[in-house]
Structure formats: structure tokens, C-alpha cells
Amino acid sequence: MENMTSNKSVLSWINEKIDLVKPEKVVWIDGTQEQIEALRAEACSTGEMIKLNQELLPDCYLHRTAVNDVARVEGRTFICAPTKEEAGPTNNWMDPAEAYEMLYAIAKDSYKGRTMYVIPYSMGPVGSKFSKIGIELTDSIYVVLNMVIMTRVGTDVLKALGDSEDWVRGLHCKCDIDEEKRYICQFPQDNTIISVNSGYGGNVLLGKKCFALRIASYQGKNEGWQAEHMLILGLQKPDGEIRYICAAFPSACGKTNLAMLIPPEGYYKNGYRVWCVGDDISWIRKGEDGRLYAINPENGFFGVAPGTNEKSNPNALASTRKGTIFTNVAHNLDNNTVWWEGLDKNPPANAIEWKGNPWNGQESEEKGAHPNSRFTAPAVNCPCISSEFENPDGVPISAIVFGGRRAKLAPLVYQSRDWNHGVFVGSIMASETTAAAAGAVGVVRRDPMAMLPFCGYNMADYWQHWIDIGAGLDPEKAPKIFNVNWFRKDDEGNFMWPGFGDNLRVLDWIIDRCEGKVEADETAIGFVPKAADINLEGIEDEVSDAQLAELLSVDVSLWNDEVAGIEEFYGKFDRLPATLKAELETLKANIK
Ligand code: GTP
Ligand code: SPV
Ligand code: MN
Q: Is the dihedral of CA 207, 208, 214, 220 positive or negative?
């Protein structure tokens, strides 16, 4: 097949990799429908993908990964910077020269008898000043078809790249899916990613976490912008105006759900709407008017399937009804469709579960879908996709929201006193772990800005970068910073807040605060709503006044314990910004 570009840096890098992995042939992905169809057919012929019921789910497919390869592997993810200090205390580090040597030994000859697919892709609308280009080499059709949904792929991208050397190199080799030899390595100084021995989403769709967060966060530090694990939504109020919010929650903590929420009935009738710009990643930079603007660098949603249903997230469900790839969900053999826990109360009796075994959902105790099973759906499918989704200039951000899963401690919502206090609030985030990464679930861990697994350099320098960004903004124009917690539990372990669509009630308060329309109570940790300002109309049965008071309360003795945890965490950083140290001292004084 002919090369699709004459870019020397691209061709020489690809030739080097061809010599290393020795593919039988090389196929350039041009992004045409014809080519996509042919790849789908080929993947179905080998069993790599299953074509689903084309009447109910047109252009939808099912894929099952290896059973030992179902989530990101944080323990095997490395930042290969020249010194360990540059990677910082929260990242695994490997010396770049050693890493290349080890990875090349694993990758050597691994494409023998296989095809190398060359995927030119753009993160962000092709040609936008926010956007960046990458090329991923892979031996997996599943990866190609996912990248085609998740990014902008094809000839246009190479045209936009021209002769530039500014692009991210990505090599993915499935090898034997050997857990012991699985490595996800980022080389920020070289704009390079190498991923071996996995076929699961976040490990192998290199445009996503590897590039758009780990490499891009490092680029952003050097170039004066930010790459964040944040959704972007537009909140339309009855006046018709739309205010934009970015929110960072750890993996499987509600970004997709919040980004696509449908307002409660009363709000909806009054004209409230939420428009989704993005559900996972934001690239943020200052605009000419001095405000911060964000784009979503992705082109699709790689969303958590379990729990997605007609009530919790109808927009996400609708997004998966065509052109979607389902990974590790149950296969309903009666009608050749898919099912997962929490889709409905009617699991199929005649099915294949995510591991590939026969499954009777009505009798089996086993799960049909893996807790981290996912859908890869085109963003254009989403009924509430924002009209600004393709805007190359991004959308202006009014509020930044942090949040996580905290059964106790964090109130439903609070506002930071100013930008630097907001950076502190982000830096002390903690959340219970989820199935999105391999390892224990439900353990509280520090996850600053939801970036713990995704920051491509020293987290202390990343915090300083946040502080520097704020220092360059007029405080009047800077987004206001908040923290939310949809996951507070009562003593019986029940969620105290209904969440999902009802989270709009909190977003509404957040926007009112941004616009100075509502007073708040100043507490030790920041500004908390007056109970009367959280509208409970329609959910009075679910949330009593006493419960709301509890949700908004700040328990000083719990915060005392928390401070000890924060100090321990901060103690890991030699380069902790003085500003954050001072913020911690303020918190300590406030809770005394
Ligand atoms: P990644 O794609 O992994 O980055 O995750 P995400 O942040 O987009 O998570 P997602 O929206 O898919 O949420 C995953 C889980 O959180 C599901 O189990 C949801 O049911 C649950 N969830 C989302 N929003 C809420 C909420 O408001 N309240 C409660 N209790 N659960 C929620
Ligand atoms: C996450 O884990 O935060 C995800 C899914 O969004 S993955 O692409 O696997 O990282
Ligand atoms: Mn994510």
C-alpha cells in the first residue's frame, strides 16, 4: 500500500518500527467508510468482533478482551523521563534508554504474519489551534475501529500535519497479552508512547489517556495550557444563555453521567437544558478575551456500560444505538443484542457472559458484563451533543468542579474562596477506587484533580502550573472552583443524594454563585449553600430537610483526620508549592 504522506519524520519513524516488528503488510487508515467496512468484515471473519442485530443496533459490534486484560494497569504504566524527579513521587518511572531497550526487545518481530495499521489521528477538530496530531501503529483491528470513533482519523489529518515534526509517536503491540510483560510507557520528552501486551481501551487507544492526558499535560506545562481529566457541559438556563462547566471526577465517578444529564421535570419545563461538549478530557487555554476556553479533544465516548439505562442516562444509552463497539458486555443470543448489569431488570436467559461462557442471566449468580465493560460511541450520536462540539475555539468556562466518591466527609457541594484555594481543593481530592483500573475497589486514595494516573510529570510541578495559570487570569474572569460529592452515604450505607439528573440542582447553585446571585455560608473549608438555596422541589420524598442539612454539613472532627492524611500525602513532594502549604495551614487553623 502506498504511503499517505511524504512527511520525512513520519516515514522514517514508521520504517524504523517496521524493521523492529516485521509486519507482513502495512495498511494506512484513510478514514473512508469503505475501508472501515472492510475492517469490520475482516474482524468478524476472525471472531475478533461479533456483528450485532443490524435492525436494532445498526453498525454495532461486540468485542471481548482477554479475561486478564479488562482495565487500565496503573502499576505497569510508566513515565519515562530523564530523571525520576521529573516523573515525581506519584508516577512509576523508568529510565528512557532502559525502557526503550526493554520495550523493543518485547516488540521485536511481534507483528510477524500480522498487519501493521497506521492511524493518523487528530485530538481536537482538525486544524484548531488547540489540536494536536498523533500517529498510532497497531496490530489490532479493534484498536483501529475504536480510534476511528474516538478521534478524527485519516487523510485530512496528514494534510494538516504537512511536514511538521510536531506529532506524537505511538506504537502498540498486542504480543501475547502477557500480564507479566504488559507495559504502558510514556516518553514525554520524545512525544512517544509504547504500549505492549494489552488490548484493553485505556491501555491501547493511545490518543486517549496516554496522549491526551499524560503527554499533553506535559506539553501543556511547557506551552502554557492544561490537559485535564474533565467533562465539559453547557448549562442552558431559562433565559436561553449557556454557561459552561468543566468537572474532574476520577474514573467511573460520574463524568459521562453529569455531562449528559437530563434536568428534573420542573427544571426541564422551565427551559433548563444540559449540552454535552465532552465526557472525559478537556484541553484548556486562555482566550483573547482573557477567559479560559476548553475543547474536548475526543470524537466519541468510551463510557462505562454497567448502570447506564433509560432512567440514569438516556442520552448515553441513545448514543450507543448505532455505530458503537461494545466491549466485555453480555451477548443476548435470543436477539443478538447486548446486556449489562443495570440496563434493565430483565437479564437474558440465553446469553454469553463477558468471558465468553454460556450464561443464564435469570439464574446465574455470576455477572453478565464486566464492571468496567464499556461502549465506544460516536459523539454525534448523542441527542444532547453541544452545537459547540466542533468549535475550534472551544467554549468559555464559568466554573471548574472537582469531585469524587466520599461516603463521609465531603459535603454535597462547596466553593473555594479563590483560585489558589481552589487549586488546593483539587490537590486534596480523594476518592474510593473503582473497576476502571486493575486492583482493589472501594479503597479511598488521594487522586488530585482526578489526575493521579494521568499526570505526565511531577504532580508538584503540575500544581504549580495550575497556580501559574491562575496568576495569569484576571480574578473577575477566572472560573470559580467548586467541589461536589454525589456519593455521601448514611449509616446504613445508602446514598443520601439521588444524583444523576438531580445533580442539576447543584449545578444551578454553582452557576448562581458564579454570577453572584446567591449568598452562601462561609465554613472552615469554603462556601457552603444555605439549605434554602438547594431546590428540592419534586424530591422532597427522597431528601428530607434534615438529610439536606446533613449533606451540607462540615464535620470538623472528620476534617481533622483528613488533614493528617493530606499532610502525609503532601510529605511525598519535595517541590510542594508554597501556596499549597499555606492553604493547608489555613485549613488547619480554620478547623481548630
Ligand atoms: P471514566 O469514563 O472511567 O473516566 O468514568 P466517568 O467519570 O465518566 O464515570 P461514569 O459517568 O460512567 O459513572 C460511572 C459510575 O458512577 C456508574 O456506576 C454510575 O452509576 C455512577 N454514578 C454516576 N453519577 C452518579 C450519581 O450522581 N450518583 C450516584 N450514586 N452514582 C453515580
Ligand atoms: C478512565 O479509566 O478514566 C477511562 C477509561 O476513561 S480508559 O480509557 O480505559 O482510561
Ligand atoms: Mn476517564
A: positive
Closest CA relative to residue 127, chosen from 374, 246, 295: 295
Residue count of the chain, please give it: 592
Q: Report the alpha-carbon distance of residue 301 to residue 315 in Å, rounded.
A: 12
Label the pairing between strands 444-446 and 242-248: unpaired
Q: What pLDDT, on the 0 to 100 scale, is given for residue 1? A: 63
Residue ID of nearest Cα to ligand 1 atom 13 = 254
- Of the ligands numbered here, which is closest to the C-alpha atom of 432? 1
**Quick one: CA torsion of 556, 561, 563, 567, rounded to 10 degrees?**
170
DSSP state of 496: S
Three-state secondary-structure class, residue 544: coil
Closest residue by Cα to residue 244 from 391, 377, 380: 391
Whether the CB of 142 sits within 6 Å of ligand 1: no
Strand order in the sheet with 325-327: 50-51, 61-63, 325-327, 374-378, 300-304
pLDDT of residue 478: 98
Active-site positions read 253
What are the tens digits of pLDDT across the range 443-462?
889 999 999 999 999 999 99
Among 189, 223, 257, the domain-final residue is 223
**33-41 long-range CB contacts below 8 Å, 24 or more apart?**
36/145, 36/148, 39/141, 39/144, 39/145, 40/145
Please report the pLDDT score of residue 2 as a whole number: 79
How close is the Cα of 112 to the center of ligand 2, in Å? 30
User: Do residues 211 and 236 both lie within one domain?
Assistant: no
326 Cβ contact list (under 8 Å, min separation 6): 52, 60, 61, 62, 63, 305, 320, 338, 373, 374, 375, 376
408 shares a domain with 538: yes
CA distance 264 to 200: 36
Q: Which of 326, 357, 379 is the last residue of a domain?
A: 379
Spans of the chain below 70 pLDDT: 1
Q: How far is the CA of 115 from the centre of ligand 3 (A)?
A: 29
Ligand nearest to the CA of 209: 2
The pLDDT value given to residue 519: 98
Distance CA 263, CA 240 (A): 15
Q: Is 495 in the pocket of ligand 1 (CB under 6 A)?
A: yes
255 and 291, same domain (yes or no): yes
pTM for the full predicted model: 0.98
Pocket of ligand 2 (CB under 6 A): 72, 201-202, 208-209, 251, 280, 302, 436
Residue 581 lies in a domain: no
Maximum pairwise Cα distance, the chain: 70
The CA-atom distances, in angstroms, between 366 and each of 304, 348, 354, 355 are 19, 13, 10, 11
Supply the range of the domain harboring residue 474: 228-296+389-554
Compute the distance from residue 355 Cα to the ligand 2 centre, in Å: 20
One domain, residues 333 and 346: yes
Q: Which residues pair with 351 in a beta bridge?
A: 332, 359
